[in-house]
Amino acid sequence: MDQDRTPYLGAALASLAVFFIYVLTLAPTAAFWDASEYIATAHILGIPHPPGNPLFVALGRVWILLLSPIDFLMNLESSVAVRVNLFAAATSALAGGFFFLFVHRIAKGLDRGPIFPWVAAGAAVLVGGTAFTVWYQSNVNEKVYTLAVLVIAAVSWLAVRWRDRKDEPGSVRYLVLAVYLMILGSTNHLMALLPAPALGLYVLMVQPRVLLRRDLLTRGALAVVVGLSFNFFLPIRADQNPIINEGHPACESMVEAAVAVYSLGRAGCDELADNLTREQYGKPSVFTDPTSPDPMNPEPRGLGLMGHQLLNYFQYFDWQWARGLDAADLPGSRRLPVTLLFLGLGLVGLRAVYVSDRDTFWYALALAGTLTVGLVFYLNFRYGWSLAGEEIPRQMREVRERDYFFIAGFMFWGVLAGTGLAYVWDEAANRIQDARARLYAAPILAVAFIPLVFNWGWADRSYDYAARDWAYNLLQSTAPYSVLFTNGDNDTFPLWYLQEVEGIRQDVTVVVVQYLFTDWYPKQIQYHTSPERQRPFREERDTGLHPVPGQPPSSPVIGLSHDDMDAIVGGTLQQESVFDLGELALQFQAGTFLSRGDRMALAMIRDSLGERPIYFASTGGLPESLGLTDHVIREGIAARLETGDPEQEGVVRLPQELGGEWLDFERSRTLAEEVFTYRALADRDIWADRPTLNIPWHFYFLHLQLAEAAGRMGVEEEAVNRFVGSAESFLVTARGGRLAPQANP
Predict the structure, then answer these.
(1) Are 39 and 27 in contact (CB under 8 A)?
(2) φ and ψ of 270, to 5 deg
(3) How far apart are CA 46 and CA 34, in angstroms?
(4) From CA 589, how far away is CA 147, in angstroms rounded?
(5) What is d(CA 7, CA 738) in angstroms, rounded to the nearest whole number?
(6) Which of 471, 555, 586, 666 is the most buried if burial means most Cβ atoms within 10 Å?
(7) Pairing of β 509-512 and β 632-635
(8) Residue 160: pLDDT band with limits 50, 70, 90
C-alpha cells in the first residue's frame, strides 16, 4: 500500500451523507427497551443497568449540553431525547467515515485507477450504514452499541495506518491509540474490545518484533490504566444517590474501588465488582446450556442448540439487506435472493482485500469472524424469540430479538459487500471494449441502494411517539403520590424518561418488581420517598380525575429498617398465613411460595396504604402472584388496588373473555377520550419491533372493555361504536401493522 494523501474530506462527506439519512428518519422522542433509560441517565448523570456504561453517560451528558441550542432553533417536545438520538446517529456516521478511509486504502492497493477507491469506499459506507439493524439503532439511542461500533471502525483505520507507516519514527503511537480506544470503549461496553484479536493477529503478521518495543509496552500499559480509570465514575456518582442508580456500585474507599476497577471485577468492592461483571444477570458459561431447567446444575451446550444459534444469526443477517421486501420474520422468504447476493458480495469484498494486501486480508477475516461466528459462540443465547417454534416454551427463548448485538458485524459485512460490489463493477467494465466501459457498467452499482430503498420503511422512526405516549398514558392513569408496580423494561424505562427528562408526574413512585429481589433497590425506594425527598405533585399536570392531597405523604413507601429488609428472603410457607392490608386480609395457604420480591412488595403495599394509592401496570404478574386479581380496578391502562369492596358505583365487572376485570368506566372513559395520546399506536403500516406488540394490544383491549362497559351501562350507541372503531384501529397495529402478516403474535 502506498501513502498518498488520505481522503479525510471524502470520509467526512460520506459520514455526513449517512448522518443525513439518519436525521431524516430520526426518532422524535424516546423508544422502548433501553432507549428511555439511557436518555434519562445521560440527562441526570445516573447509572443505568450493569455494567453502568460510564463513558456513554458522561459523553451523553456533554453531548446534551453541546446541542442545547436546538431548544432555540426548533420547537421540539422532546429536545433532550432528540439530542441523545442524534448522538447515536453521529457515532454511527463517524464509524462510516473511518470505514471509508479503511476501504479507500484497500482499494488503492488494487491499482485500478483514481476513481475506483472512491467508488468502493462510497459504496461500502452506503451499504454498511443502511443495513437494517445498523440503521434502526442509529436513529434512536436504544443501546450504547453505536459508540462501540465507532471504536471498532477507528481501530480498523488505525491498524491500516500503522501498517503503512510502521517503519517511520513514532509509528507505534497508532497502536497505542488503538489500545487506548478499545480500553476506554470497554467502559462503555465490552463490544469495543472485539477488534483486539484481529489487531493482535495483524501485528504478528506485519511486524511481530514491535511487541517487544519498550515504548509500546510502557505507553500501552499507561493507556490501559488511564482508559479503565473512567470506571471510577460509577462509585463516585453512586455515592451521591442519583434517582436512577442501578446496582448502587458505591465503595467504602477508593482503594477498594481501584482493586475492583483494575481487577476487572474479580476482587475489591463487592458492589462495584458485581456491577462490572454483570453479576445480577447470571450469564452462563459458553460451555453450558442457557436453557437448562436447573441453572445450578446446567447441562452441557449441545450441538442442536449451537446449530439453532447459528441459524438465529442467519435470520438476523437475512433482515439486513431488504427488510421491507417481505414482512416475515423467518428466513427463507422473498428476501433470500437479496440476502445471498449480499453474502456473496461480502465474500468478493474479502477477495478484494486479499488481492490488495494479504496482511490486511487476515485482519479483515479475523474481524469478520469475531463479529459473527465468534460472537454467536460467546453470547450463547437461548432459542430465538421468533425463530423457535411453538414447541419451545417461552422461558427457553430470548425475551426479544437480539440482532442489535451483531450491529458491528452487520456494518462491517456491509462495508465488505460495498467493496465487493465496486470490484464486480470494475471487473464488468474491464470486459467491455469501450472507453466509457465504466459508465456502461455503472448500473451494477445501483445494488448498493437496495438496503436504502427496502429498509427505509422498517427503519424509519421519524413518526414514532409510541413509547413516550405509552408512558404518559400509564402515569396519567394513576392518582397523585401513587406507588406504581411495573414488570420490566417497557413499562418502566419510558416512565423514568418522562419523569426525569420531561418532568411529568414525578410524584409517582415507580417500583420495578424484578429489582425488589436485590438488596439495594428497596433501600433506594425508601431513601427517595422519605418526606424530605418526596417529589411534589404538580397541579398543572393534573387530569382533573383525582382529588389532590393537601400534603404529600408523611412517610416513605417502605418503613422497614435496612436490617429488616436484608432479612427478607423467599421461601415456602409452612403453615397458613394471613397478611393484613387494612380492610383486606390476604390468606396464603401452607405450601405457597412467596419470593423475596413478593414479600417486599407486600411490605411496601402495607406501609403505603392510607397515604399512597397502589397501582399495577398490569393485572397479571404481581397481582396474580399475590392473589389480588379480584381486588384491583382498572383505571385507564393501570390497575388500582381496592382493599374494600370493588363493586362500586360506575365500576363494571367485565366478562371473562375480556379479562374478567373490574373497570372504572367513567374514569377510564375520560382518560381514554380526553387525556391519553395515541401517536403511532393505531393504524400503523408496520411495527418493526415485534416483541413490543403487547403495547398496542393494551389499548386494543382497553377500548374493547370500554365498548362492553358502555353497552352494559346504557351509554349512547354512538359511544359504543366509537370505542369499537378505536379498538379495531389499535388491532391493526397490534397485529404488526397493515404491511405485516395479519396473524396474532
Answers:
(1) no
(2) -60, -45
(3) 14
(4) 52
(5) 45
(6) 471
(7) unpaired
(8) very high
Please tell me whether residue 323 adopts helix, strand or coil conformation.
helix
Tally Cβ neighbours within 10 Å of residue 169. 7
The H or E element that residue 63 is part of is: helix 54-66
Q: Cβ distance 247 to 49 under 8 Å?
A: yes
Sequence-distant (6+) residues with CB within 8 A of 195 are 151, 152, 155, 156, 159, 178, 182, 367, 370
Evaluate if residue 120 carries a pLDDT over 80.
yes
User: In whole angstroms, what is the distance from residue 475 CA to residue 269 CA?
Assistant: 37
* pTM exceeds 0.90: yes
Sign of the torsion angle spanned by Cα atoms 732, 734, 737, 741: negative
Beta-bridge mates of residue 245: 47
- List residues bridging with 578 in a β-sheet: 587
How far is it, in rounded angstroms, from Cα 494 to Cα 490?
7
649: left (phi over 0), alpha (psi -120 to 50) or beta: beta
Residues 6+ apart with CB under 8 A from 67: 83, 86
| Per-residue pLDDT tens digits for 542-601 | 667 777 777 899 999 999 999 999 999 999 999 989 888 888 888 899 999 999 999 999
Say whether 611 sits in a helix, a strand or coil. coil
DSSP 673: I
Q: Which amino acid is at 95?
A: A
Q: Which strand ranges, in their side-by-side order, compose the sheet holding 651-653?
A: 509-512, 483-486, 614-616, 638-641, 632-635, 662-664, 651-653
Helices (H), ranges, 529-621: 562-567, 596-608
Q: How many CA within 13 A on the CB side of residue 706?
A: 29
Q: Give just the sign of the alpha carbon dihedral 508, 514, 516, 520.
A: negative
Question: Nearest 5°: phi and psi at 212?
Answer: -95, 0
Residues 6 or more apart whose Cβ sits within 8 Å of residue 567: none
Q: Of the candidates 160, 169, 227, which has an alpha carbon nearest to the alpha carbon of residue 11?
A: 160
Helix axes 466-476, 694-712, angle to 10 degrees: 40
